[in-house]
Amino acid sequence: MKQSIKPSYTLHKNFRLPMGFSPENFDSGFTYQAQARDTFIVTYPKCGTTWTQHIVWMLSHDGKPLPLDKNINLEVPHLEEVGSDFVKSLSEPRFIKTHLTYDLNPYNPDSKYIYIARNPFDCAVSFYYHTQGFIKHYDFAEGTFDDFFECFINGEVDCGDYFDNLLSWVQHKNDQNVLFLTYESMKNNPKINIIAIAKFLGDNYVEKVQNTQILESILHHTSFTSMSQNQSRWSSQRPPNMTPFIRKGKVGDWKSHFSVSQTQRLSQKLRMRTAGTEAENLWQIPE
Ligand code: PPS
Questions:
Q1: For 46-59, how does the pLDDT look when each residue is reduced to its tens digit (9 = 90+)?
Q2: Burial class (CB in 10 A: 0-12, 13-18, 19+), 29
Q3: Which CATH architecture has domain 19-274?
Q4: How far is the CA of 65 from the centre of ligand 1 (A)?
């Protein structure tokens, strides 16, 4: 029988960090004092973070796309990766990416929080290709989807358990400073969701989307097709034989990866973990 392979992580306190991530920056991220003008883009990994980072960046740059010589993660930085000082050095208003549960995320009642949820099936597949592709972070180039699935369903991956993250934010989905979106709804109607983000951010941003040229530009440059171009803007380099970071952008890609038994196990977990919560009807649960 083939031996299963696990991704490698740096174990730090109770967290798994991608290798090469600085534990000092990670710790310092938690000390960041959220400011009234901050907007946090919060997700479990692979749920639509980069897409939303680019939407908010374009909203705050009059509908211009991120130039080719910039990286979104320096503009809308990942708090746990870069640490508190880096984020503090940015001028306000700040847009900040995190993959933290509600309780761990820096909180200020006047800060805003955009949370994007994605169904766990597509998330697991996307996270598998991410983990396989960033060889220096995970040493998992030979890992199969079956190997990764076991880690994912047990919550033994970086950023912790999918359900812990989702459920912590679902409880706050109707808070006045939280905008809770799904990847599937963004795919289904990007325009409505971009407008919802602008409304949530405030009048200055509503004015932007009332300008048809700006709105059309944001729609165009944040489409999957546009974001597939010039991908050095979104992440660090991946070896050319690995799938690109902006990979497929589909709802339902999981169907060509999951076995019958994996589908049943994750469906069962989704059913159990979300029962009685506002997450139970977010997605149709496969049989
Ligand atoms: S990360 O590493 O956590 O920041 O990844 P994240 O950006 O959250 O998720 C990456 C997945 O989102 C898809 N993606 C998009 N889908 C549709 N439209 C746009 N514009 C878009 N941009 C990124 C990306 O392709 C990854 O999903 P998969 O299923 O792997 O294609």
A1: 999 999 999 999 99
A2: buried
A3: 3-Layer(aba) Sandwich (3.40)
A4: 17
- Structure tokens given for 71: 């990286």
- Inter-CA distances, 270 with 36, 125, 280, Å: 35, 16, 8
99 given a catalytic annotation: yes
Residue 58 near ligand 1, beta carbon < 6 Å = no
Give the tokens for residue 165.
């993250």
- Spatial contact of 150 and 85, defined as CB atoms under 8 Å apart: no
Going by C-alpha positions, the residue among 148, 156, 264 that lies closest to residue 272 is 264
Are the C-beta atoms of residues 193 and 186 closer than 8 Å to each other?
yes
What are phi and psi for residue 176, nearest 5 degrees? -70, -25
1 — pLDDT class (breaks 50, 70, 90): low
Per-residue pLDDT reduced to its tens digit, 223-240? 999 999 999 999 988 888
18 Cβ closer than 6 Å to some ligand 1 atom: no
The catalytically annotated residue of 78, 99, 130, 137 is 99
Q: Are strands 15-18 and 9-12 parallel, antiparallel or unpaired?
A: antiparallel
